[in-house]
Amino acid sequence: MKKVLLATSILAATAGFAAAEVTLSGSARMGVIDDFGADNTGFTSRARVVFTLSGETDGGLSFGATFRADNASAANSGDAGEVFMSGAFGKLTMGDIDGAAQQVVGNVDGVGLTGLDDLNEAVYLGAGTSDGGSNSDPTAAYEYSSGAFTAIISATNPDNGVLDDPDTVVDESTPDSDSILALGAKYSTDAFSVGLGYEDADGIDHIVLGGSASFGAVTVKALFGSASGDVDGDQFALSAAYSADALTVTAFYADDEELGGVEAYGLGASYALGGGAKVVGGYSKNDSADTSAVDLGVSFSF
Known about the structure:
17 strands, globular, 56% strand, Porin, 2 helices
C-alpha cells in the first residue's frame, strides 16, 4: 500500500521521544449494486482516508494510533480508532477494536465490492457493527506473542449490548450492564493457523474455534462457535478462495441463526489490475430472509 508521508523521523528535543511519524493511507470504490429486497439497481461509491500515527521512545517503547478521517470525532472520545503501546512486555491496545476471541479466530472470507452486508461474519459477544457509530465496542486488549504463538486477553463495553440485547447496554443509565471478558490463543505459520477463543458475559458463555490452511492456490477457512446460558446455540462458517495470477475466486457459507444471525452463502471474484486497483464483484444470498444481492465495480487502495 502506498503511503503519503506527512511527517517522518521528527526528532524531539525533549527526553523520551526518539522518533515519530504520521502517515496517510486510503481506499475507494465505485460500482453498481442490487441490494437485498430492494428490487432495483443503483450506484455505490465510497472514499476513505486513514491516519496512522507511530513513534518510539529512547528506551525502545513503541506507541501509536490509527483512525479514519470520517471517524475523527468519535476517535477523540474513544468510540472509534485505536491507541497502542508495545515493548518487550507485549502490546496494550484500547479503542474500537475486536475482542480477544474475535482477534484470534476472525471470520471466513467474504465476497463483493461492498461486502454485501458482510453475511460471512460470525457472531461475537458485544461486537459492534460500525466504527464510531451507535454500535461501537470500546475495548482494552493485552497481547503477548512468542514465535508462532499469540495470546490475548480483553475487556469490552459494547454500546449495542451483548448480542444486541438492549438490557445489557453499558452506559450511565444502566449501571448493572454487562461487560465482555475474553481470552484467545492462536498458533500461526505460513501454511496454516488455528485460533481458540472464549468470551464471558453475565449469563452467556461463548467458545469459538477457527482455522485456515493453504493448499497450493487454495486457501480454506473454517469456524465453529457454541454459546450457552441466556443465549444457547451454535454457529458454523466455511470459505474457500482460489487464486490464479491476478484472479481470485471466493465462496462462503455461514449459519449463525441460533445466535441471532442468518444462514447465508456467497460467491465472488476479483481481478487485480495493478497499482492497487481491482475489479470486484459478488453475489450473496440471505436464506433466512430469502433475499439476495449482487454488486460489481472497481476498488482502489492507496
